[in-house]
Amino acid sequence: MSKLTKKAMEIIMKNTTDDHKVMAALEGPGGDHKDYLHVWPRDSFFVALELKNFNRSLAEDIVRGIVKLPTDNGLFYQRYELNGIPDDRAWCNGDGNRQLDQDALRFVVLAEFPGIRTDIKEIKKNYESFLDQIKQKKTVTDVWEQKNGYFFYTSTAIIWGLKSAEKILPESKEKHKKILDEIVKSLDSFFDKKLNSFVKTPSEKIIDLEIILGLNILFQYGNGIFASRQRLEKVVSTLKAVEKEIAVKIGDVKVPIRYKEDFWNGEKVGPNGSGRPWPMGIAFISQAYSYLVKAALSIREFGIAEEALEDAYRWLSYLKNTPNIEQFPEQIDFDGSVPQQVARPLTWCAAELLKAERLFSEAKAVLEEVDSVNLRMISKNLILNPSSLN
Fold first, then answer.
1. What is the total count of domains within the chain?
2. CA 306, 307, 309: angle at the middle one, nearest 5?
3. What is the CATH number of the domain that holds 58?
4. Is-above-0.90 flag for pTM?
5. Could you tell me the residue range of the domain that residue 322 belongs to?
6. 3-state SS assignment for residue 200
7. Peptide bond into 29 cis (omega under 30)
8. Phi and psi, residue 27, nearest 5°
């Protein structure tokens, strides 16, 4: 375990309260705008999903605490006070104005932690509310700001949530067949041929950091979505487009902003009026390349796998060498400094660093095993067929 990995674990532990609630961050933003000193269900679920690889007991305790939070007719509020009371200042709790991914993630964590005892009647209530929102095709709120629409990332989260719900409520599978077929098919509409990249929405053709988060969900969900060279090439071209369009140089490293017209707290802070770089985004990109290694090997696309591992390592190196990364800030400035009004240390950021390191190690090991097997097969063939040397 590297020094930075240990630091990430320390941050997660420090930001977890005695009753196992995960604070988004300990500091900031400044003034009275302390939204990150709250419990955000999405952040907590992502932290728990990665923490299970390092401290499963704590991860389960976190999940138990979050799934018991009060809901609005079965759906989560955007964020909560540390005492579990919903924060009435949250801006996306209205009907048709939800961050529905966190409700999807509820079923993901319950499927990942089957030992957690839950009130099945309450789970069914949560499920029916979640399913009703999907059936009505109501717009949702962007993962990081107050934009409403139909997003690539949210679509992937819904797919993952529905498939996970089937493990908890097997009778729900028939209800999902038509819905899932429609959503999965819709993913193709998010790929823009001109940009050669998946985009935020089919109508709003923006290369956005949340696209990578969505791709990683699809890799985790599995089900053969990327089981063809054509689909793998779309992932590769998307990652290259993200690097070209929204990654900025800070010294010797590259860090992505969210998207070109991004802003934070009303500020046009970048040289071109764009938002600040996000260190957590580096982790997302490295993870995507590591997932790509395994997906490519599964269909024997060895060239794609080898190149993907190199890129996974490159982005992981960027992450480890990002200025002030040890503070695990949500954002940094273009000179590498951490602005005063930036959340830190961000628990979700620490968890994504753990995930990036773990996935790279796993991808490297899998590729090395494949190379070893291939080498043994070649050696055996030469012994049995010496003439093949000619």
1. 1
2. 65
3. 1.50.10.10
4. yes
5. 3-389
6. coil
7. yes
8. -130, 145
